[in-house]
Amino acid sequence: MPKYRKTVETNLASKICFDIGCTERVLLMQISGIDARIMKGLLKNLLVTKSDRTSVSLLRSIPSSNISFALDFGILVFLTEVIGLHYLLSNGIGFMVGTTLNYLLCIFWVFSRRSISNRHLEYWLFIVIGASGVGLNELFIWIFTEKLSIYYLYSKILAGSTVFFYNFFTRRYLLFR
Fold this sequence. Notes:
This protein has two domains: 3-47, no CATH class; 54-174, no CATH class. Helices cover 77% and strands 0% of the residues. The radius of gyration is 20 Å and the shape is globular. The chain is built from six helices and no strands. Helix 1 runs parallel beside helix 2, helix 3 (54-83) packs antiparallel against helix 6 and helix 4 (87-110) crosses helix 5.
């Protein structure tokens, strides 16, 4: 392996460790990629260890939000297609159920700090942020579906992706700093 390539891989591994918070850095790289000890440290810090880093919280919030979004999406489809509710009403109900699941995942896994000691107040503020997210979600899904003629399920995906970033950063800086 050329010396230059090994240096680039070593710097990448060190940068990844720095960004995620590895305590150990291994300078010897395997030909196949990053050393197993570095990967083990990265995965442990990303999945298990409590972390105050925004980058770790953001990476953890992706599967958390995806699970919550899947529940939200399933409720939307079920209430609209099976029960026959209007898609905007179904969307609001699904969004609030998904938000409650997301709250539980956030307090137990995504964020390590909590800014508010009163848990009832924290939950209601989380719901208020979620409700404003519902408003944005409803607005985006309506614009995409009614004004841009995008199928409502595709509109839901676009709206949900946009609202994800609003919810994450608002909650991170108001509730979990």
